[in-house]
Amino acid sequence: MSLETNKSDYKLLLIDDDEVDIMTFQRALKSSDLSCKLTVCFDAKEALEKLSTSNFDCIFLDYLLPGIDGLQLLRRLREMSVSTPVAVITSQGDEKIAVEMIKNGAFDYFTKNDINPDKISKVVITAVRLWNAERKRVEAEKKIIENNNRLNAILESTHNLIFAFDRTLNLISFNSAFKESMEHLLRQRDIIKQDINLHAIPIREEMKQSLLRNISKCFLGEQFTVLEQISFSNDPSKITPWYETTFNPIVDINGEVSGVAIYSKDVSENKKIVFDLMQAKNEAVAAAQAKSEFLSNMSHEIRTPMNAIIGLTELLLEEPLEINQLENIKSIKYSADNLLVIINDILDFGKIEAGKVRFENIDFDLPSRIEELRKTFEHRTKEKGLNFLIEFAENVPLTVKGDPYRLNQILFNLVGNAIKFTPSGQVSIAIKAIPGGEQMNLEFSVTDTGIGIPENQQAKIFESFTQANAETTRKYGGTGLGLAITKNLVQLQGGSISVKSKLNEGTSFIVSIPFGIGADEKIEKVAEKSEQKADLSELKILLVEDNIMNQFVAKQFFKKWNNELLIANNGEEAIQILKERADLDLVLMDLQMPEMSGFQAAEIIRGNKTAVLNSNIPIIALSADAFIETRRKVIEAGMDDYVTKPFKPEELYSKIIKHTKQNASL
Ligand code: ADP
Question: How far is the C-alpha of 277 from the C-alpha of 72, rounded, in Å?
């Protein structure tokens, strides 16, 4: 049976079987200024039932109850996790019992004689305060547990090692991954517990030192990451894994570093992948280099016999021939010329891939270079019945500064293609300047009315070894290197190249290259074809050349020019001859020769200050190598000029005339 009294804010439970006591309590409560709701239970059983359904702010418990006593009931309440504050009401002289009750969780006690309004109010208020505090503590504890669970889940969500040390280097925290990595070391010692000290961890001494160093550094307050080989094994035969380890200071509420948290990630696999990749890359680079060196050597080797083939064919073409012989020899010449273009492409490509291309920066006469180009293609355009137009915009300066040889090579490729892929109509070169201060861009548009390039192929044709389609190769030949080289040569000079094309209508390649504005007086004049009848009978010329075939070809040309060449087989022989013959007018110097190279020979000749030989004799270098570096080296070695092999007879002739005339006028 329970007895409900007045309604209120505080909910109180009185467990007492003494009617008089209950009435005294109710009276005291009424007279107090508390507003309460009191529930009364007469025995433990009833109280337990009530407590299982209702909450109270404070329980007043009479120690003497029928059945179970107050102490037992108190214990039951604690077992049931009822944490409502309990005040015990005792009889006079029951202090001992009261102390026992307090030990078992009661928060206060008073005797029946003390039941008065004042006492009850005080007890209730204290109980409520206590309980609020307790509730907050429980709440906070719950939060801490939840937080810990969350952090633990994070710690456990990685296979990487996470662990932490305090200032005394005691291990204060770690995840399972760390524990597992240490277990084989620590199991036998049974020391994998929180208070293990870094010094007691049986890892290799140098690892320990490295950890200690980094932990000490971290105590200065900064987070940092190191990449190190760390082994938690003390077995030196095991491969030591690479760890990327982050040291992070733990800061206490005063802002002091109280420990160091360590995150260690095994990056051995990544390391290995990077290492393998690097190795593969190095191998690929070495292979590419070997390839371009091989190509470069091969094409050099091929150029020398080509020199003989082209030279001798040219000579044959000037002989009186029967018509079918003439046709055959023309075919040989045509094939040999083509082959030479291919060889030059391969040689260039190798140099570009090896990053060995250098550019001239000289003043030159632009219109005469373009005119040269027109002459080069005159024959082919006429043969195909194509119009060949050249348009200069008014703003194009006559003299520009840059690399005339590379410009020629670029336009040669584009115009060559334009003619090749145009069955009828016209091919044109339009040139305009886009000014911009000291520098300007020259824009060359090479346009044809040919077969065109399908749109989906337009980007690809600039890749090496790529042609628009397989049929092209069958029908037109070619290596697919021309445009790749052209694009590289344009871009390496800071320029750009683009294509516009429509199938069966034609193609336009637009090249833009920065040039300086040239000074007229510095122009290197293009060798002009000599108008006078070729005759060199007056001159005594020494050819220094180790290749018998090349000697033979040269002799044939010079015979035509009424000149009997003197021959030296290498640099040494040349110097010997020069010492013996003071009457020589000019030296033609091959560059690559056994015993003594052309460069060495030229340096010795120029450096000879004694009067034993004519150290001022004009020297023209002859080489199969068409590169600017070679050109530069030739001039550095003191030679006067340079002719590439296979030489164009008129170019060689006019250079001989130029240098012997100059010499005579000195
Ligand atoms: P190739 O030695 O084969 O001519 P290129 O690199 O010079 O190599 O050209 C690549 C391909 O681009 C050619 O095979 C051809 O299909 C296409 N191409 C280049 N120029 C033209 C052009 N003017 N008209 C049509 N197709 C062209």
Answer: 76
Mind listing the pLDDT tens digit for each residue in 287-297? 877 876 777 67
Residue with the smallest CA separation from ligand 1 atom 17 is 468
For the record, the structure tokens of 451 come out as 């077969």
CA pair distance 234, 240, nearest whole angstrom: 10
Q: Is residue 342 part of a domain?
A: no
State whether the beta carbon of 451 lies less than 6 angstroms from ligand 1: yes
Ligand 1 centre and the CA of 479: distance in Å? 9
Q: Are residues 501 and 599 in the same domain?
A: no
499 band by pLDDT with thresholds 50, 70 and 90: very high
State which residues form the domain around 648.
541-660
At 258-281, the pLDDT tens digits run 999 999 888 888 888 988 999 999
Contact 448 CB / ligand 1 (< 6 Å): yes
Give Cβ neighbours of residue 198 (< 8 Å, ≥ 6 apart): 165, 169, 170, 171, 208, 211, 212, 215
Using CA atoms, how far residue 416 sits from 345, 412, 453, 663, in Å, is 13, 6, 16, 39
In a domain, 255, yes or no: yes
* H/E run at residue 607: helix 598-607
Q: Under DSSP, is residue 256 helix (H, G, I), strand (E, B) or coil? A: coil
CATH code for position 189: 3.30.450.20
Identify the CATH number of the domain in which residue 101 sits: 3.40.50.2300
Same domain, 603 and 493: no
Q: What is the pLDDT of residue 654?
A: 87
How many angstroms separate the first and last alpha carbons of the chain? 143
The reply to whether ligand 1 has any atom less than 6 angstroms from the CB of 483 is yes
**647 Cβ contact partners less than 8 Å away, ≥ 6 residues apart:** 307, 311, 622
> Quick one: CA dihedral 125, 127, 132, 133, positive or negative?
positive
Shared domain check, 378 and 511 = yes
Q: Could you read off the pLDDT of 380-413 as tens digits, one per residue?
A: 899 999 999 999 998 888 899 999 888 988 999 9
The yes-or-no verdict on residue 519 having pLDDT over 80 is no
**Is 8 a residue whose pLDDT tops 60?**
no
Same domain, residue pair 509 and 556:
no
The total number of structural domains that make up the chain: 4
The pTM assigned to this predicted structure is 0.50
- CB of 453 within 6 A of ligand 1: the answer is yes
pLDDT grade, residue 656 (50/70/90)? Answer: very high
Assess whether 187 and 255 both reside in one domain.
yes
In a domain, 60, yes or no: yes
Task: Please tell me whether residues 116 and 204 are part of one structural domain.
Answer: no
Max CA separation in the chain (angstroms): 157
From ligand 1's centre to the CA of 515, what distance in Å? 26
Please name the amino acid found at residue 444: F
Residue that finishes a domain, picked among 96, 113, 140:
140
Domain limit, last residue, from 246, 266, 286: 266
State whether residue 415 is helix, strand or coil.
Answer: helix
Both tokens of 630, joined, read: 């070679």
Would residue 75 count as lying in a domain? yes
* Helix%, strand%, coil% for the chain, nearest 5: 45, 20, 30
